[in-house]
Amino acid sequence: MPRRTMIEAIRDAMDVSMARDERVIVFGEDVGFFGGVFRCTQGLQAKYGKSRCFDAPISEAGIVGSAIGMAAYGLKPCVEVQFADYVYPAYDQIVSEAARLRYRSNGDFTCPIVVRMPTGGGIFGGQTHSQSPEALFTHVSGLKVVVPSNPHDAKGLLIAAIEDPDPVIFLEPKRLYNGPFDGHHDRPVTPWSKHELGEVADGHYTVPLGKAVIRRPGAAVTVLAYGTMVYVAEAAAAETGIDAEIIDLRTLLPLDLDAIVASVKKTGRCVVVHEATLTSGFGAELSALVQESCFYHLEAPVARVAGWDTPYPHAQEWDYFPGPARVGRALLETMGA
User: Which CATH superfamily is domain 3-199 in?
Assistant: First the structure.
């Protein structure tokens, strides 16, 4: 199969979807002629024309609000918010309109929109280009929330999201955009690994929303991770020598609780890893669910490894990230508890 970066896989997903369904449209800031700040939409306007891939004003509320109206009238908008940090002006549109449209209309209207946005740090973007706001969306009934960790999943999940009848928040870890992340480094000594790019099939395929996958089988401890942190968890397990089972959640909402419970009941221990701030992060929900579902199988408290409870620190970016050293300490402490 062809090998692609995540950027290329995401672009291919939109290309395939636009070719299959003329109702699919793509728009956002600089996504047309320029092809997006990360070039995820490069070439789509030239191929499908300015009526199906076009630039929008710098108004996130306007972009998402317009997409909701288009979706109510039968289109399938896939819109880009240039950075996840910019989504806040559109938050009311997402939670008060998109997430509730099916329920408010008693099923007369649906809202088949996808809101794509780069998330997380790793590019020295500072406080306004590096945030991980997934927990703000997993709290909202009516939304689906997706975070891919590799090019194959990114393409399949995005196609599935575009074909879904309800709104999907699609968070793309920028550290993974241009190649598999080398999780062994706490700092950007070699930001991208030299491994081959991900295998991504041509044409149409989907990865089902709501299904996690085991990235590394193990019997000693379960590690729950998503996005970039999957690679960090793999590096920590390799460096500590602990037989960790690493689950890539892929979809945070709906969550594959069955896969989580099966793994934790097998291992008896659990470590949760995410890049976002610790307090009220999605790891808190995961910890509560594991405790509720697996209490009598747990042999140690559920551990969380996450970002600091501070505004995003530009100068200390790579200290802020949970790296293999921090995750490794959590693994060792959990095994020793």
Answer: Thiamin diphosphate (ThDP)-binding fold, Pyr/PP domains (3.40.50.970)
Sheet holding 251-253, edge to edge: 53-55, 24-28, 76-80, 114-119, 168-173, 144-146, 251-253
Q: Are 219 and 231 in contact (CB under 8 A)?
A: no
Alpha carbon distance 144, 161 (integer Å): 9
DSSP codes joined into one string, 28-77: ETT-SSS--TTSTTTTHHHHH-TTTEEE--S-HHHHHHHHHHHHHTT-EE
Which CATH architecture group holds 213-336? 3-Layer(aba) Sandwich (3.40)
Q: Where are the alpha helices (DSSP H) in the chain?
A: 6-20, 44-48, 60-72, 91-92, 101-104, 134-138, 151-163, 229-240, 257-267, 282-294, 317-320, 324-336
Domain ranges of the chain: 3-199, 213-336
Active-site pick, 129, 139, 185, 274: 129
pLDDT bracket for residue 181 (50, 70, 90): low
Residue length, the chain?
337
129 is catalytic: yes
Q: pTM of the prediction? A: 0.94
- Rounded CA gap, 52 and 318, in Å? 39
Within a 13 Å sphere around the CA of 115, how many CA atoms are in the beta-carbon half?
33
Q: How many Cα atoms are found within 13 Å in the side-chain-facing hemisphere of 92?
A: 3
Alpha-carbon gap, residue 216 to 194, rounded angstroms: 20
Q: Which of these ranges, 40-49, 72-81, 117-126, 235-244, has the smallest mean pLDDT?
A: 117-126
